[in-house]
Specification:
Shape: globular
Oligomer: single chain
Largest sheet: 9 strands, mixed
Distance between the termini: 67 Å
CATH topology: Rossmann fold
Number of domains: 1
Number of helices: 11
Radius of gyration: 23 Å
Strand content: 15-25%
Structural class: alpha/beta
Number of strands: 9
Length: 359
């Protein structure tokens, strides 16, 4: 933790510093959602090697220094737990899918959830998860690729930084919807398409210069627009989707790549390049430092930023008593009049006061 400095920003900053990076835009925005939309009912596009991902998670979970790499997932888990608290309801039964080391569950208050099902594909993680006193706990070995619960049994489903490794994400959303009761809630966070754009650009430029071509070394991530489409197709209503951006400063590229391995967030794409040449690594580190490096004016130390874009999603299972949107054309104020909204509000209040005086 002493090697990193976490900086939080609310909006996405400018991603392009040199004109040459524009040539890599298509590769950078290659997303899982783009592949998912190409699938039909008979065929699933397998992007990730689930066996590789299982081995990565098992290795990270069993490491003696596993807690050193929890800083990012802890922060995101805390934010997701805070969103659960914002829903003014006590959920009788909830499931944490891909709970890992309990990054969300340890922040959940018994005032929010009565009983929690902890689900993970790794038994070692399940044994190490801690929750607050007052919450009933069940543990279940479950692969996010095959989500199975009793239909209409859950009030809440939580998932933090797990679903972006699922090949058949549309089916995963459908299974979650099926397991929820009417008016049940899905709250989840996944890495977005702008995650690690600095590392991706640096590796691509280094390989173009050293090897004369580009190999995929970072797994594809989904985009905000894809998440909205998939949730809508699955049947969720009243969607709320937003993004956070967390920037972590590292000494060099090598510390960043080492921490990604410790987080079990290493590349698990089927078509990934298994070997990154040593000379390419050093070239990428130099490019990274040149394009994105920062120098502390007080200490003179240089660091490189790594951006993690977090897509937060909230969706509700349909229920007859849920609020419905007004019919198209029923609005009383035109969008073109928004610039004089204050005047409109004053006019409405004046008319209301006059009506009250008459009555």
């Amino acid at each position: 933790m002493s090697l990193v400095n976490i900086v939080f920003r609310s909006r996405k900053s400018s991603l392009t510093k040199l004109r040459i990076l524009k040539n890599l835009k298509k590769a950078r925005h290659f997303s899982v959602g783009a592949l998912i939309h190409q699938k039909n009912d008979e065929h699933i596009m397998h992007v990730f090697d689930r066996n590789t991902k299982s081995l990565q998670r098992e290795r990270a979970a069993s490491a003696q220094d596993a807690n050193l790499y929890d800083y990012l997932k802890d922060e995101i888990g805390y934010r997701l737990a805070d969103r659960v608290f914002d829903i003014k309801r006590k959920f009788k039964l909830a499931a944490d899918i891909g709970c890992s080391r309990g990054y969300v569950s340890k922040h959940i208050s018994p005032k929010c959830i009565e009983e929690l099902i902890l689900c993970d594909m790794n038994r070692f993680n399940l044994d190490s998860v801690q929750v607050q006193e007052g919450i009933k706990v069940r543990k279940q070995v479950l692969d996010e690729e095959h989500i199975e619960f009793e239909p209409n049994s859950l009030d809440l489903v939580i998932s933090s930084l797990s679903l972006h490794w699922v090949n058949d994400l549309p089916n995963a959303f459908k299974q979650i919807l099926k397991s929820l009761k009417e008016d049940g809630v899905l709250l989840a966070a996944v890495f977005g398409g702008d995650t690690l754009y600095e590392l991706r650009s640096s590796l691509q430029l280094a390989e173009l210069e050293r090897r004369g071509g580009i190999s995929p070394h970072i797994s594809p991530f989904t985009e905000v627009r894809d998440i909205g489409n998939l949730l809508t197709r699955a049947g969720f209503t009243m969607l709320t989707i937003d993004t956070d951006e967390i920037v972590v400063n590292y000494p060099t590229l090598f510390e960043l790549m080492w921490d990604l391995k410790g987080m079990a967030e290493s590349n698990a794409a089927i078509n990934r390049s298994l070997h990154l040449h040593r000379e390419t690594q050093f070239a990428a580190a130099a490019i990274y430092q040149q394009l994105y490096g920062k120098t502390d004016p007080e200490t003179g130390k240089t660091t490189i930023p790594a951006t993690f874009q977090i897509i937060n999603m909230l969706g509700w299972k349909p229920h007859p008593k849920q609020p419905k949107p007004l019919e198209r054309g029923s609005g009383e104020v035109s969008l073109k009049d928004l610039y004089k909204l204050d005047e409109i509000i004053k006019e409405v209040k004046k008319i209301k006061n006059d009506d009250d005086q008459k009555n």
